[in-house]
Design a protein that fits this description.
The complex is a heterodimer of chains A (416) and B (158).
Chain A: E1 20-22, H1 29-40, E2 46-50, E3 60-65, E4 68-74, E5 80-84, E6 99-100, E7 105-107, E8 114-116, E9 121-123, E10 149-155, E11 158-162, H2 170-186, E12 191-201, H3 205-213, H4 215-221, H5 223-227, E13 236-241, E14 248-253, H6 261-267, E15 293-300, E16 304-309, E17 312-320, E18 326-335, H7 340-349, H8 361-373, E19 381-383, H9 401-414
Chain B: H1 4-23, E1 34-44, H2 45-49, E2 57-59, H3 62-75, E3 81-87, E4 91-96, E5 99-112, E6 117-132, E7 135-145, E8 149-151
Parallel strand pairs in B: 1-7
Antiparallel strand pairs in B: 1-2, 3-5, 4-5, 5-6, 6-7
Classes of the chains: A alpha+beta (416), B alpha+beta (158).
Chain lengths: 416, 158
């Protein structure tokens, strides 16, 4: 990678408090490299896959934790394991495809070093050489070598992993409130994958995380939300930010009363229009949750989103691909007890989200607008003061508290 | 319409007109290419292989096709961009009564407002047509992209 500008040598210091973020944090290669070590391979938990992706013994799936390629398996005993997708020999990928079934183990294509489903090195081709010649030295032990293993824990059918031996347990890492808000979406049901798409974002991964945590923008940038009363800031709802600051929940419940419309008109915001649908059937979702919440966006630090937008349920996995590239992996979900009508509604409401979504396509480009807008200004700073200067939850969603929370957790782990 | 050649010609013409409509930014005319009880969806080869039902875009009425256009025109924010479609020859897969199934490959370049031109999508149209006199009516178009990866966003229809 090419070094980026003089700012790298003498970056401006991070200002006091949580309300200013210098743009170099979205631009610098050295920051990106540190994030891999201190955040993605630090004491945080990353979403790996669904439990149902590795349903049976011998099933495997490849994924990423930051830059690191990872294999997730279910072994003969039925336990889920995860290890780096990196041969212990010379670093090749062990698994080349994204998934497989009925594996007994793995063999690296390069020199046929073999691994079991737990990621242990089990064999080295020609270890003893041929006819007594060549081969590994007599003191070579396969047990001394192997790809790094991840600790694995599951919650609500979601598999998480961490490279860090000292990380908190997953429930402690998430905390009670976040754990129960994830469980709320799944409600004990078995998730069924309805589709998988990847959106290649032209921006730093943190700009996407800021966007997801930003309840302030949701009904301003996204006209679709506002006009059809899927989400107005004046609706009943709240922001929850966990103690670390890193995880958040934004939720709202539909309120069909007339309150709030006047607030939008007064701001002359583009998103208050009289736009109407010819076929509004995609807005006629079914009552899925007894609490009446029709929108819940939840983030797990550092880079995972659990989404409920009406009946559109999805996991979003955020994979950094360099300082100014990010892959956003969408996993659309239904549940095994969906009726055909409910399933059809999920397929229709998938129009709201994803790379082509009525209410999320803008999120695919707005991070790039920031990346490009701030390209010449590494030492300038964004202003994140809406709703105050702290990172506490609130009933108002006219706030950037959860963005401040992200930076609080980020700086703590990065030590900057 | 009697011969297979006539049918092929009618379908190739309809597909060419459809692509020109999109590339010329005449989106308001796009719904007219579909029957009232139409289906238009965009998915990918991997999603088809895995039997996944969800789509990037799923429109199962002409009203929903119209709504896609009005959302693009009045609601959604995206940088000014245009497509250039290159279509392969339609392959007639089956005919059954007045129903005809075809597969046609496509390549779409995306041209951004600053002139940046990229290969945006390749794939195939799985089309279902209804013969009506000398013309054909598009009942269903399933756009199967070869890749599940979309750069930035998918705004305009493929």
């Amino acid at each position: 990678m090419v070094a980026k500008g003089p700012a790298e040598a003498t970056p401006s210091p991070w200002p006091e408090g949580l309300t200013r973020v210098p743009y170099w944090v979205f631009q610098r290669d050295d920051i990106y490299a540190q994030e891999q070590k201190r955040i993605f391979q630090g004491p945080s938990w990353s979403f790996l896959c669904l439990e149902s992706d590795v349903e049976n013994s011998g099933d495997w799936r490849t994924t990423f934790v930051g830059d690191a390629p990872v294999v997730v398996t279910r072994n003969a005993a039925g336990d889920i394991h995860a290890f780096e997708n990196r041969c212990a020999h010379r670093g090749s990928l062990i698994c080349l495809d994204e998934k497989g079934r009925k594996a007994q183990g793995f063999s690296c294509v390069y020199h046929a070093w073999t691994y079991n489903l737990e990621g242990d090195l089990t064999g080295v081709a020609f270890q003893k050489g041929i006819k007594g010649k060549g081969g590994m030295p007599p003191d070579f032990r396969v047990s001394d070598h192997g790809p790094r293993k991840l600790r694995v824990e599951t919650i609500s059918g979601l598999v998480y992993g961490t490279f860090c031996a000292d990380a908190l347990s997953l429930p402690d890492y998430l905390g009670q409130e976040i754990t129960s808000r994830i469980a709320r979406v799944f409600a004990g049901r078995k998730p069924v994958v309805l589709g998988r798409f990847t959106q290649a974002l032209p921006n730093n991964w943190k700009l996407y995380i800021e966007n997801v945590k930003d309840s302030y923008h949701a009904s301003i940038l996204h006209l679709f939300f506002t006009t059809f009363e899927l989400n107005r800031l004046s609706q009943k709802g709240a922001i929850i930010v966990d103690e670390s600051g890193g995880h958040h929940v934004s939720y709202s419940a539909i309120d069909r009363g007339p309150t709030g419309n006047a607030d939008y008109s007064a701001q002359k915001i583009r998103s208050d229009s009289d736009y109407k649908l010819a076929d509004p059937s995609l807005l006629h979702g079914f009552d899925e949750y007894p609490d009446g919440v029709t929108l819940q966006i939840l983030t797990v630090f550092p880079a995972m989103v659990v989404q409920q937008i009406q009946n559109a349920i999805a996991i979003r996995q955020v994979i950094p691909r360099g300082p100014d590239q990010t892959d956003l992996n969408w996993i659309y979900l239904g549940f095994d007890d969906d009726t055909p009508e409910q399933r059809m509604m999920r397929l229709k409401q998938a129009n709201l989200v994803g790379p082509a979504g009525y209410i999320s396509m803008e999120d695919g480009c707005v991070g790039g607008f920031v990346q490009r807008g701030s390209a010449g200004a590494p030492d300038e700073r964004s202003v994140i003061e809406m709703g105050g200067k702290t990172a506490e939850g609130s009933e108002s969603r006219v706030t950037e508290a959860s963005i401040r929370g992200f930076w609080k957790a980020y700086r703590a782990q990065m030590g900057i | 319409m009697t011969s297979l050649q006539d049918l092929w010609f009618a379908i190739a013409q309809a597909q060419a007109a459809h692509a020109r409509c999109l590339d010329d930014d005449r989106l308001e005319e796009w719904p007219d290419f579909f029957a009232d009880d139409c289906l238009y969806r965009v998915t990918s080869a991997d999603n088809v292989r895995d039997g996944y039902e969800a789509s990037l875009i799923f429109l199962n009425s002409k009203g929903m096709v119209r709504d896609r256009v009005s959302a693009l025109r009045t609601a959604n924010i995206y940088e000014r961009q245009a497509y250039r479609h290159l279509l392969g020859q339609p392959s007639i897969l089956s005919t059954e009564g007045d129903k005809v199934s075809t597969e046609t490959s496509f390549v779409v370049a995306r041209i951004m407002r600053d002139g940046k031109t990229d290969l945006f999508a390749t794939g195939r149209y799985l089309d279902t047509w209804r013969r009506a006199g000398d013309s054909v009516e598009l009942m269903a178009r399933v756009v199967v992209c070869d890749s599940s990866r979309i750069d930035t966003l998918l705004a305009l229809p493929l």
